[in-house]
Amino acid sequence: MKKPALPPVLFFLWASLLVYSGPALAAGTVRLELLGDARGAPLAFQEWSQALGKAGIQNFRIQSVKEPGKPAIDIQGTEDRPVYVVTGVILSRDEIELPGRRFRRTEIKQLAAWLNDLAEQGPVGMRPNRGVFGLTADDAEKVLTEIAKPAGFDSQGMSRRAAIEKIAALLDPPLKIETRLAEALGDAEVDAPLSGLSRGTALAYLLRMAGMGFAPKESDGKIAYELVPLRDDAKCWPVGVEAESAREALPALFEFHNVNVQNVSAAKAISSIAKLMDTPVLIDANALAGQEIDPDKVLVSHPRSRTVYGIALRKMLFQAKLKYEVRLDDAGKPFLWITTIRPM
């Protein structure tokens, strides 16, 4: 039986966040061989030997040759226990050249880290291409299909903690939340309409307000979900993705209407236009709080005119130092994302 096609936005997320191209290389050991002409810099060999020793780099050898050649990495050993033989060139008392990188003696710690990274992951050109979450293609599709399902319940009026825990329990497998973290989710009431949005977008939005996020991962060959701090935002599941074409995603935003708004709160202006377009609105509460912007207190206006909702909304939000984005949830459903003009 042919599997149903995933919405385009899922393929976008799959390609940009989750793709994994193959098995990781086995961790190995590194042997460093530095070549140079001792006649040109007689003290260089001694100084580099001392520096490498002090940095804890032990498996190295320094040789004097007339023509050092070019830096290279030679893979020896076995597939399960590879040995990466790194040939480098001593350029001077202060600088050596390794494949793709030069190091000064003052950068000896960075050199040690480079060698450790090579031992753990292998040469850069041979590493598998991983997305942010490093899932296999099959697991990526399972995750995307799962979190694209609608939240499916009315969260308005619920406490943030209760709404988060309900969505977390709906996931397969469920997102487990430790008691100490659950207490930090907060009891503020949810006022955003989340029932029609995808589970992933709704959960990412609610957690963001609590200073957290979530991410899929592989654990012992199985899919799992985990809470992550918001400061690692690049590794959190996003609150939707910005639509490539706002006009195609939300045509109602570009329809002409008579607009006349005089001294109303930015919050009321936002909700009124969203209601007229029958579109969910999510407000980036973290960003607004960080810049002390309260949309319930900032008054906005728009002179009587015939215009499109998008232009009117943009002008009114600008008065409150805000902007909107047309985003798509994990199932491709559009919503308005309200955030600050100036980034957090």
In brief:
By secondary structure, this protein is of the alpha+beta class.
Describe this entry's structure for a reader.
The model has no long low-confidence stretch (mean pLDDT 88). Strands 1, 2, 3, 4, 5 and 6 form a six-stranded mixed β-sheet that branches. It contains eleven helices and 14 strands. Helix 1 packs across helix 4, helix 5 packs antiparallel against helix 7 and helix 9 runs antiparallel to helix 11. It starts with 7 loop residues before the first helix and ends with a strand. The longest helix is centred in the first third of the chain and has 14 residues. A hairpin with a 2-residue loop joins strand 7 and strand 8. It folds into three domains: 98 residues, Rossmann fold (3-Layer(aba) Sandwich), CATH 3.40.50; 103 residues, Phage tail protein beta-alpha-beta fold; 95 residues, Phage tail protein beta-alpha-beta fold, CATH 3.55.50. With 344 residues, it is of the alpha+beta class.
